[in-house]
Specification:
mainly alpha, Cytochrome Bc1 Complex, Chain D, domain 2, 6 helices, about 55% helix, about 5% strand, globular, binds heme C
Length: about 130
């Protein structure tokens, strides 16, 4: 009686983990960007390059996404005022990219600061692909 109970518990935890990793809201956000960008798939590799690059055109004190989010998205970042920012990697912070209004608000604000322009749908999709792949 004991073993099957444990097995059932393990199965349930594994299933819940999987559901969390593949959040339907995150998938819907990605699908929206794919439609807008007119692409079938995003590139985690391009997303990583975009996240780590030094960009011109934005504010000089924030040249890169990593200025605040750090080089390792599985670790917390820090605002310029020193306030902690939770990790960006979905594996470390499953809440990431599960609220489209929140996602859009921060893309707008941060892309303005770093690039001096809005991020394209392709850039947003690649970035989420990267941060979901870690
Ligand atoms: C000046 C500091 C700063 C910079 C530079 C910055 N961010 Fe952020 N970012 C934040 C803060 C603060 C939050 C909100 C707090 C949080 O979500 O933990 C945030 C949140 C986000 C979110 C919301 C994610 C979610 O939870 O759904 C996205 C998307 C994002 N940033 C993208 C970017 C991108 C892309 C860049 C580079 C182009 C960038 N950020 C650069 C400070 C920054």
């Amino acid at each position: 009686m004991r073993l099957p109970t444990i097995l059932l518990a393990v199965t349930l935890v594994a299933t819940a983990g999987l559901a969390l990793a593949a959040s339907p809201v995150r998938q819907a956000i990605l699908d929206g960007y794919a439609k807008e960008a007119g692409v079938a798939a995003f590139s985690a590799e391009r997303g990583k390059a975009f996240f780590e690059a030094s960009h011109a055109g934005g504010k000089p004190e924030t040249p890169s996404c990593t200025t605040c989010h750090g080089m390792d998205p599985r670790m917390p970042g820090r605002t310029r005022a020193g306030k902690a920012i939770e990790p960006m990697a979905v594996s470390a912070n499953p809440k990431r990219f599960t609220d489209s209004a929140f996602v859009e608000k921060w893309f707008k604000r941060n892309c303005d600061s770093v690039l001096g322009r809005p991020c394209s749908a392709a850039e947003k999709g690649d970035l989420i692909a990267y941060l979901s792949s870690l």
